Every structure is written in structure tokens, then in C-alpha cells.
Amino acid sequence: MSFWSKKADTRRLRIFFATDVHGSEPTFRKFLNAGKFYNVDVLILGGDITGKMLIPIISTGNQQYRATVQSISNVLHEGQIQEFETRLAKLGFYSSVMSEDEYRHLREWPAEVEKLYYEKASQRLTSWIRLAEERLAGTHILCYITGGNDDPVQIVDVLQQEARERVVACEGMIAQLDDAGHTMISLGFSNPTPWKTPREIDDSQLAEKILKSVEGIDDFSKVIFNLHAPPINSTLDTCPMLDDSTDPPTVITSGGEPVMYGAGSQAVMDAINRYQPLLSLHGHIHESRGNIKIGRTTAVNPGSEYGEGILRGAIINLIGDQVESVQLTSG
Prior knowledge:
By secondary structure, the protein is α/β, with parallel strands linked by helices. The protein has 7 helices and 22 strands.
């Protein structure tokens, strides 16, 4: 027996992963604080970073305003506007104060509404990136962010443009996470949904994008897949089945109970089975929190409760080609 043997690599990579913050201001700030709080090396924010809705706050004269949120009408005094907008930001919504004339104009011109939405979404994302650069300056922590199926191309472009030293816009690249050989591919597209979101594509197209993402990788023993869509029928993708013939889509029930099914991607499942990466990170299905094994691969969906300002996450420790531990968190 040789006296000279290769020592096992005992360097640990400690990751905090969260996803689907959907524009929620306190949830994102908690994500940033998690870096130091959990003493991690890497922060990873999965897709769906933008909010779902723009709320007009309409002046009715005499320093009074009205706004409708989730079918509830709100009457506000001018001194209540700031607090109200803070509440909306917690829910992940954007807001804009406007006159009745401006509101009527926007109702007649949907393209102007879309333009205003992109403006507000871009402003919030830009402020988040700058806050991350400020908070993480002087630390060893890098923050990797990718878009999701709900994130329009224009917003993903803002991420690419604004990322600087501590924030990495990682979609479409092979990111080197440490000097122990851990690398990560990231892809924010999803398979089709009933919601007709900006970046959903057929599973065949998703398979092609995954194939392109792994070009040049020969050894997957230390590779991380950061794929927004979870693998199909994996328990990380279980959600109520929706009837997309209605607007908006409605939950299908049987015997008074929602019909549950696996809404994930076959292309993602096929890629995990084929390449067997060390770790596979997912989101998209908020209610399907968990971590499982698919062959040698550890697959994780931390879930999301962004609307309540709750940060769902996962602390993951990697040593060499092994996942040492996964701890799901909530705070």
C-alpha cells in the first residue's frame, strides 16, 4: 500500500438559497441579511424577483386618495400614503400616485401601463442591487441572482446592467463558486403554466437551453444546477391543478378538495437523471417546499411566502463532491 495518498478535500462551501421573492421589499432585505446571519460564503437568489402588480393611488382632491388592493377599496389621507406604499412593497406590489386624469389616460392606453410597470420594477431591482453591493462590501460573500419565468426580459437586462462587484447576474453562465471546483449553471425559464408568463417555453425548448448551459462541462460531481422550474412529479412541484379556460385560472376541485398534481418540468427531471449534478436548486412552486434525492443529486425547493414578508430558504453545506447537510429555514 502506498504511503502517499491524496487527501480528501475538506473545504466547505456554505450556501444560502432563496427564491420567488416577487418584489417583496422586506423579504429581499431578509435575504441579504441572511448572508452574515448564517455565516455563508454564497447567497443565491433564484428566479421571480419582480412583483406581480402595479397599484394606482389616485388623487380625489382635498388631499385624499383612493386605491384598490385585492378587491378592497382604501380611502387615504395624504399623510397615510408613505405607510400605504410600504405595505404594498411588503406584498411585492409596485405603486404610483396619480391624478384622475392620469388614471383615465392609463386605462385607455395599456402600453403606457406596461411602461410604468417596467419603470417601477426596474427602480426597485436597481435599488436592491445597490443595497446588496453596499451591505456585502468588505465581506467575502458573493450574491448570485437570476430571473425566473415571471421576470420579463427587460428586468433580466436591468440585472445584467446593474450587477457590479458583490452581485453576479448568473443566468446563462457557468459560475465558479469557489476554488474547490464547485460550479453552477443557472436558467430562469419554466415549462408552460396557466398564467402565460413572460419566460415560459415548451419543455423541448427548455431541454435545449439546459443542454447549451452545460456545454463544456465533463465532470458533474461538483456541479450545481440552479434551474427555476422543479423536476416533474418530484414532490418539489406539487400544487393545485388550475382550469386555464377561465380568466383568471381557477382551482379544479374533486369532492370539495383541490386536485393536486406535479406541475414541474420533464426536461429538468431528464437533465438531473442524465447528468446527476451534486445539487439542484429550484423554486417556482411556492407551496412545494422540501429536499429530496434523485439518484446522487440532492434537489431543493425552499418554497416561498413572500406575500407575508416571510423568507423561506435553505442553508446547504458542500464538501468536495458531497452534500454535507441541508437545513430549510424560515424567518
